[in-house]
Automatic annotation (TrEMBL):
Active site (record annotation): S77
Cofactors, names only: Mn(2+)
Quaternary structure, from the entry: Monomer.
InterPro entries listed in its UniProt record: Alkaline_phosphatase_core_sf, BPG-indep_PGM_N, Metalloenzyme, PGAM_B_sf, Pgm_bpd_ind
Principal location class: cytoplasm
GO biological process: glucose catabolic process; glycolytic process; response to blue light; response to carbon dioxide; stomatal movement
Name this protein carries in UniProt: phosphoglycerate mutase (2,3-diphosphoglycerate-independent)
Function in brief: Catalyzes the interconversion of 2-phosphoglycerate (2-PGA) and 3-phosphoglycerate (3-PGA). Required for guard cell function (e.g. blue light-, abscisic acid- (ABA), and low CO(2)-regulated stomatal movements) and fertility (e.g. pollen grains production).
Family stated for the protein in its record: Belongs to the BPG-independent phosphoglycerate mutase family.
Length: 553
């Protein structure tokens, strides 16, 4: 597949241990009270910043720089880690789906043909995240898909919604459900039997990731497939409004929509078609397994309907999961991880469960598993289950730091790569005090890793995948914080469009290595070539240019 020997770097040596540290959700922003990274004590990251401009700079982490449709698209971990690992910019799921819908190609593909064979006798079920966050899915894409599917023969449609409040503001779910209900009413006027059938908050129902907690998927299965949930409503808007009295959007308990006889309006049965309409993989893989695998032992499915199932995209290229999909995923090939392993670089990668796949699966181009198990070790530290991230904002940062330290000191690896999740996961809760605690814990973990690099004479690269914790409030065009009608500050739980820092250093960094100043627009995709250089190689020609140069002194 073209992944062969890399050229030796003319000036940089091999054999140095390189730590690659990705702080999740750690952008650069002006100092202010809602910038949790600024407010938190972060002496290690602060000291790295002193190295600017030669050893510290900013890089882009949002929009087209990471393959997203527009400059207004905030970054996210999937596209961020894809770019970091692949060293090139690929048009990402969001954009590929936009194109396939706009051109109508989506309806001509194998995946749509496959599911449409059920339209005559069965129901089409659409399951996914209902918001305009653009990280996992987008409302406008769902709207187009509903319209297109009905024009291409779907007569009975059931939508199983997952409310967001994580990539968008808490409370916005009500408006999204109203919009969807309105669209479905329009379809009904055209003679299509279209309804919302079930729902629940994304963090509590269905959208778990990396097999952290299968109960989350089971709750969704019960509602979506079996038509069973502790909460029954005849109307989804009412359901969301009522359930919001005790939980916020991301954590709404599961509900099913029932008819006047108290029967669920849309369980999934033999002969139906199912589409999971999220384009992003990580939080759909578990449901895809439950829908697709005949042999499945993660929870009792009770009933396993014979359905035709397609993902919006194929979510896992290695597992070929699901086997049918509406849009082909970006073909992220020849990643830096694969090149380095083929060139005998021994790699250690680690994070806690909720981010583990980010430094492995996403890093390697949405591919699970090792390139060469003899040369690689991926360690997953189990995340706490069922404890909100703002309740335990330190998460597993110190454990990740210690595992990385041990891997570095063992001298068994050339690259030690970690993701430290706090800025992101705690930032998504919108809890400012907790996020400050999380940022401090992340900074301490970085110190542990840098100290180990110091001991072995290695090199470090510290960067981030996108912004989050550096701004916790919504703002108007002028940049001033927004307040709601009750005078309450509007909290920002989502990512941002800010750039992220990158720092290089360590005793193993050859003298004369510094950031070049001729790639001012550099982004996450430029990091792969940079890291390859630090391992003593020149990156393949089609990689985005390295950020560093070596000056003779
Ligand atoms: C999530 O899946 O947690 C969020 O939607 C995005 O966060 P991430 O891109 O940082 O994982
Ligand atoms: Co995030």
């Amino acid at each position: 597949n073209g992944v062969g020997k890399l050229e030796d770097h003319p000036k940089l040596p091999k054999g140095k241990t390189v730590a690659v540290v990705v702080l999740d959700g750690w952008g650069e922003n002006k100092p202010h009270q809602y910038n949790c990274i600024h407010v938190a004590q972060t002496p290690t990251m602060d000291s790295l910043k002193q190295g600017a401009p030669e050893k510290w700079r900013l890089i882009r982490a949002h929009g087209p720089a990471v393959g997203l449709p527009t400059e207004d698209d905030m970054g996210n971990s999937e596209v961020g880690h894809n770019a970091l690992g692949a060293g090139r910019i690929f048009a990402q799921g969001a954009k590929l789906v936009d194109l396939a819908l706009a051109s109508g190609k989506l309806y001509e593909g194998e995946g749509f043909k496959y599911i449409s064979e059920s339209f005559e006798k069965g129901t089409l079920h659409l399951i996914g995240l209902l918001s305009d966050g653009g990280v996992h899915s987008r409302l406008d894409q769902l709207q187009l898909l509903l319209k297109g599917a009905s024009e291409h023969g779907a007569k009975r449609i059931r939508v199983h919604i997952l409310t967001d409040g994580h990539d968008v503001s808490d409370g916005s779910s009500v408006g999204f459900v109203e919009t969807l209900e309105n669209d479905l009413a329009n379809l009904r006027e055209k003679g299509i039997d279209a309804k919302i059938a079930s729902g629940g908050g994304r963090m509590y129902v269905t959208m778990d990731r990396y097999e952290n907690d299968w109960d989350v998927v089971k709750r969704g299965w019960d509602a979506q497939v079996l038509g069973e949930a502790p909460n029954k409503f005849t109307n989804a808007v009412e359901a969301v409004k009522k359930l919001r009295e005790t939980a916020n959007d991301q954590y709404l308990p599961p509900f099913v929509v029932v008819d006047e006889n108290n029967e669920a309006v849309g369980p999934i049965v033999d002969g139906d078609a199912v589409v999971t309409f999220n384009f992003r993989a990580d939080r759909m893989v578990m449901l895809a397994k439950a829908l697709e695998y005949q042999d499945f032992d993660k929870f009792d499915r009770v009933r396993y309907p014979k359905i035709r199932y397609a993902g919006m995209l194929q979510y896992d290229g290695e597992l070929k999961l699901p086997s049918h999909y509406l849009v082909s995923p970006p073909e992220i090939d020849r990643t830096s991880g694969e090149y380095l392993v083929r060139n005998n670089i021994r790699i250690f990668a680690c994070s806690e469960t909720v981010k583990f796949g980010h430094v492995t699966f996403f890093w390697n181009g949405n591919r699970s598993g090792y390139f060469n198990p003899q040369l690689e070790e991926y360690v997953e530290i189990p995340s706490d289950i069922g404890i909100a991230f703002n309740v335990q904002p330190k998460m597993k940062a110190s454990e990740i730091g210690e595992k990385a330290r041990d891997a570095i000191l063992s001298r068994k690896f050339d690259q030690v790569r970690v993701n430290i999740p706090n800025g992101d996961m705690v930032g998504h809760t919108g809890d400012i005090q907790a996020t400050i605690v999380g940022c401090k814990a992340a900074d301490e973990a970085v110190k542990v890793i840098l100290d180990a690099i110091e001991q072995v004479g290695g090199i470090y690269v510290v960067t981030a995948d996108h912004g989050n914790a550096e701004d916790m409030v919504k703002r108007n065009k002028a940049g001033e914080p927004l307040y709601d009608e009750n005078g309450e500050l509007q909290i920002l739980t989502s990512h941002t469009c800010h750039p992220v820092p990158i720092a290089i250093g360590g005793p193993g960094l050859a003298p004369g290595v510094r950031f070049r100043n001729d790639v001012p627009d550099g982004g996450l995709a430029n990091v792969a070539a940079t890291v390859m250089n630090l391992h003593g190689f020149v990156a393949p020609e089609d990689y985005e240019p390295t950020l560093i140069e070596v000056v003779d002194n």
